[in-house]
Amino acid sequence: MNVAYINPFIESTLRSLDMMAGIKAEKTGLELKEDLITTYDISSIIALTGETSGSIIISMPAKLACQIASNMLMEEITALNKSVEDAIGEIGNIVVGDARRALIQDGHSLSISIPTVVIGAGHKISRSGDVPCIAIPFTTEFGNFEVNVGLREN
Hints:
Helices cover 34% and strands 31% of the residues. The chain is α+β, with helices and mostly antiparallel strands.
């Protein structure tokens, strides 16, 4: 996978979470991910197509998801519900849309899908075995989360 695709997603994640939910995050690493079983409770999945194809998956624990939704909607939410599902889908859309904008400015041609949100502790999201996936873990005061960038150049 072209490393030029990774940085826009890191920068967009940090910027979007801060701007939309007032939550500061810090990247804590970068690793090749073999399996896609998550220890988190909710994931936003957005497909990319164009000169590269694959998906971006943003996965997090319920506590962080509820805090993001609470901050975005300016009301206290303490359990996963439709509002949290919508907020996490929207955060995924914002993160990927912002990264796409940066990649287009660099001359890449990409389209994105609407977000799909998956809920359930330890859920598994499958992708084609020939699509490399880079896991980018982040930490916040409300918990850790992960952005998985799985792209293959066409």
